[in-house]
Specification:
The structure is a single chain. By secondary structure, this protein is mostly beta strands. It has 5 domains: 29-173, no CATH class; 310-407, Immunoglobulins (Immunoglobulin-like), CATH 2.60.40; 417-575, Immunoglobulin-like (Sandwich), CATH 2.60.40; 579-672, Immunoglobulins (Immunoglobulin-like, Sandwich); 679-842, Immunoglobulin-like (Sandwich). The strands form 14 sheets. The chain has a 7-stranded mixed sheet, with no helix packed on it. A hairpin with a 5-residue loop joins strand 32 (474-481) and strand 33 (487-494). The radius of gyration is 57 Å and the shape is flat.
Length: 860
């Protein structure tokens, strides 16, 4: 009775699966989901035997499934040797079926098995039998065993054996493969004027898929579709539902297109997919599953229609009246007019020239407000006084706007301006000229358009920047000298390049100079002009008389037919001189040179600019007045003394000066201090010492205390014969140098070098004992010296140098010995020296018997 109840429950569940499958096709599981495999009970369809290894077994089957969106889907185990959900429900992770071995064969079994095929389609009586046969076929695909191992228990079993064998054959030998359920939309043509109704823009599309599709619905995004847009078949009949292999159109009224169209649309359709997924138990102790779901899956594709609406502008250039020059009547079209057309929003921009009929037709223009500017009128005609700019609107697709522009006849005129960057200048000073407003103010082209710059004889041209111009032309630059004329310096220059022409490298005779140069443009059009100014660099020659004046003249000319026109400009500049006088003198009486205070001496200075950068070297001689001209007004300069006569101190201070106004004379008297030559050394040692005792000498104020550098700086120490030197602590010094240490002995007066690589920044301990120096018995160091070479003013020790020496044994009590130290140096021909010594008396300690000492009256 219990078995019957279970069967009834299973029957109800299976019926529910069938009904829901027909009613709802869109609910499905997907990779990444987690589902629970459930045992729905025995199938109770025991009609099959299976024989393995000679043993025949009756097949019994549990119906396993998972529940999704209100219904159950069958699940097929793929690990028959492991227990499954028949022993209890558990969850599996849904993954792509390709992860399972032999996945294609299993997929073919499931596509041709239950539930994608009904029991009737499989030749069976019910869904239980269909489930069992599908499950058994999957086993045989996985393990490769023969389907002939099945036999029937009864008549129902014969049908089931046939179904299993057919499914196994399909799984192993079939050619079906899984196809992604994708709908594709292809654009047949570009969006454009419709071929059946020119009031519309349309685009044709084609629907396709590799699988069967039920009715596909197309939805237009109304936010992106202009008013009146609709879907239709190829005959413009409205329609929204289409089939695979069908063409359709999207139509948009042109009158409603007021901006770029980017219409977004979506197509939805149910594609026949027969998906199979893999249920991963994530455990090696229970079964994994092959999972089926809805055979149809909803597929969505997005597509769009893009269209740039456009219109036309027609410009007609007309003569406003009869022309005496051309002979054309009023309202005749004029060729050669140049217009600039620019959209204010879209960025569209072009220039165009009227054809022989005086017409410009611009097509394919985006919807916009356009500014039409007449740039150049035809020869012999003027641009209207009312203006040359026109504004028109293209607001809808296909619109055409006509603009008529009339011109009237003219006169000729040119212009030029010249300026200098200063009104006063002196010898060697740079005068920069600017030439601007180089224009053809005529309303016609001019021939022989030429700029001539006449240079005054008081300047020498160095460089010309030709400027740039608004018309793309080629031109030449020629020049004249005081000895030659019409020399070509540059040809084929471009008006679009600011050419830099160097005149400093011209091969000229010693007394030859450039007197003028010309820019020869040839024929220029209306409104020809410079876009950047010309710049001319000149240098004033030396030796000009103060307060005189020179004038630069520039001229622009051109011709039209038999007429010529000219404009010129003059720039005057006045001459001045800035003069610097320098005198170098002794500040006080000099004992070394025997020169009194105020005596002129020699010196060399570096002239520095405001940034203290080198400009020039000035050699001031005691025997003559020093004059330096042509330094710039208003800029700070400095003198830096770099050398002077011997026995005078070079000043380390910069001497500032500035010309406050043009034509100023500055007289500088520079005084020099005398040299003060002083070197020194001090020595300290013990006043008494015992025989055999190690004593230490310490040296202070070893240095150059002159106010100038000295050469051959040597510090040395002469040791008394009553001691033997043990070591030297070199001390450290305030100037970074390397020095060497030398010594002589009682038997060898040739100086020997211990090392030449001692650094003044390190305090070394040098072992100079006889043993360390490998001196023979009886030989010892009697003098050492440090050779520093040239040292700066103020050079001296930082850490005091020290000498450790051992008093000889056997010296008499009260014996006095003397240690002498010295410093020597040279300055030019003057020898410098300082000395010091230390006296030490030898004493002997006497042991006294305590008992012989007088009593103090205190009892110990």
């Amino acid at each position: 009775m219990k078995i019957k109840n279970n069967k009834k429950i299973v029957s109800v569940v299976l019926l529910l699966i069938i009904v829901l499958t027909n009613l709802s096709q869109v609910f499905a599981i997907n990779a990444g989901d987690t589902i629970t495999i459930t045992n729905l009970g025995d199938c109770n369809e025991e009609h099959l035997y299976y024989t393995r290894d000679g043993v025949r077994m009756k097949i019994t089957t549990k119906y396993l499934a998972y529940h999704e969106n209100g219904k159950y889907y069958p699940a097929y185990c793929v690990n028959r040797e492991l227990p499954g959900a028949e022993i209890g429900d558990y969850s599996v992770s849904v993954e792509e079926f390709t992860k399972l071995s032999k996945s294609e064969g299993i997929w073919r079994v499931l596509v041709n098995g239950y539930p994608y095929k009904t029991a009737a389609q499989m030749g069976l009586e019910n869904d239980y039998q269909a489930y069992i046969c599908t499950k058994q076929a999957i086993y045989r695909i996985i393990d490769g065993e023969s389907a002939d191992n099945y036999s029937a228990v009864d008549e129902k079993g014969h049908a089931m054996v046939s179904a299993i064998k057919r499914l196994v054959d399909i799984g192993r030998n079939g050619t079906q493969t899984y196809v992604d359920p994708v709908i594709t939309i292809s654009k047949v043509n570009n969006a454009g004027v419709d071929n059946k109704d020119s009031n519309y823009i349309s685009q044709t599309f084609y629907i396709d898929s590799d699988v069967n599709i039920n009715d596909a619905s197309i939805i237009l995004n109304t936010k992106t579709a202009p008013k009146g847009t609709f879907l239709a078949d190829t005959n413009n009949n409205k329609k929204t539902t289409f089939q695979k292999g069908e063409y359709f159109k999207i139509l948009i009224p042109r009158s409603n297109i007021t901006e770029k169209v980017n219409l977004q649309a979506t197509i939805d359709g149910y594609c026949e997919a027969y998906p199979v997924l893999y249920g991963n138990a994530n455990s090696n102790s229970v079964q994994n599953y092959a999972l089926v779901t809805d055979p149809y899956r909803l597929s969505t594709a997005k597509f769009n229609l893009e269209y740039n609406p456009d219109g036309k502008i027609e410009i007609n250039k007309l003569s406003s009246a009869y022309s005496e020059i051309t002979g054309l009547e009023a309202n005749t079209g004029l060729a050669g007019a140049k217009f600039h057309v620019k959209g204010t929003k879209t960025g569209y921009e072009t220039t165009a020239i009227t054809d022989a009929q005086g017409r410009i037709l611009l097509t394919g223009l985006p919807l916009d407000t356009y500014i039409i500017t007449e740039l150049i009128s035809p020869d012999y005609y003027l641009i209207n006084k009312e203006g040359n700019t026109y504004e028109v609107d293209i607001t809808t697709d296909g619109q055409k706007v006509v603009v008529n522009v009339k011109n009237t006849p003219v006169d000729i005129e040119v212009s030029v301006d010249k300026n200098a960057d200063k009104t006063e200048a002196q010898g060697n000073e740079i005068v920069n000229y600017t030439i601007d407003n180089i224009k053809n103010l005529s309303n016609v082209k001019l021939d022989n358009f030429t700029l001539v710059d006449d240079l005054p004889k008081e300047v020498r041209i160095r460089k010309v920047e030709t400027g740039t111009y608004n018309h793309d032309l080629k031109y030449s630059l020629t020049y004249n000298t005081n000895k030659r004329t019409n020399i070509v310096l540059q040809s084929n220059l471009s008006t679009k390049v600011n050419n830099v022409v160097d005149f400093t490298n011209l091969e000229l005779a010693s007394d030859e100079y450039v007197t003028s140069y010309s820019l020869n443009f040839g024929t220029v059009g209306v409104a020809f002009q410079n876009t950047t100014a010309m710049k001319v660099e000149t240098m004033v020659i030396e030796g000009l008389a103060d307060k005189t004046e020179f004038v630069n003249n520039v001229k622009v000319s051109g011709t039209y037919l038999e007429e010529s026109t000219e404009d010129e400009d003059d720039v005057p500049v006045e001459v001045y001189e800035n003069i610097l006088k320098i005198k170098k003198v002794s500040k006080e009486y000099n004992q070394y040179t025997d020169k009194e205070a105020g005596t002129a001496i020699n010196a060399t200075f570096e002239l520095l600019n405001e940034n203290k950068e080198y400009v020039s070297t000035l050699n001031v001689k005691a025997s003559e007045e020093f004059i330096y001209k042509y330094l710039e007004t208003g800029k700070q300069f400095y003198l830096k003394e770099i050398s002077t006569d011997d026995y005078y101190v070079i000043s380390d201070e910069l001497i500032p000066f500035m010309f406050e106004e043009n034509g100023q004379v500055i007289e500088l008297v520079v005084e020099n201090d005398n040299v003060n030559l002083v070197v020194d050394v001090e020595k300290e040692g013990p006043t008494q010492a015992e025989a055999g005792e190690v004593i230490q000498y310490e040296f202070n104020n070893v240095g150059n205390f002159s106010n100038t550098a000295v050469s051959n700086f040597i510090w040395g120490d002469k040791l008394p014969r009553q001691v033997r030197i043990q070591s030297i602590e070199t001390g450290t010094w305030n100037e970074e140098l390397t020095y060497k240490v030398q010594y002589i002995t009682n038997r060898n007066t040739n100086w020997k070098t211990i090392s030449e690589e001692y650094s003044t920044k390190e305090n070394y301990s040098i072992d100079v004992s006889s043993e360390s120096l490998n001196l023979p018995e009886g030989e010892y160091v009697k003098e050492f010296r440090f050779i520093f070479g040239e040292v700066k003013e103020g050079f001296q020790e930082v850490e005091n140098p020290k000498v450790n020496a051992k008093v000889n044994e056997g010296l008499a009590n009260n014996k006095i010995f003397v240690n002498d130290t010295y410093v020597t140096a040279t300055y030019v021909e003057t020898e410098l020296k300082a000395e010091d010594d230390a006296h030490t008396i030898v004493y002997k300690k006497v042991d006294i018997d305590k008992d012989l000492l007088p009593k103090t009256g205190i009892d110990d």
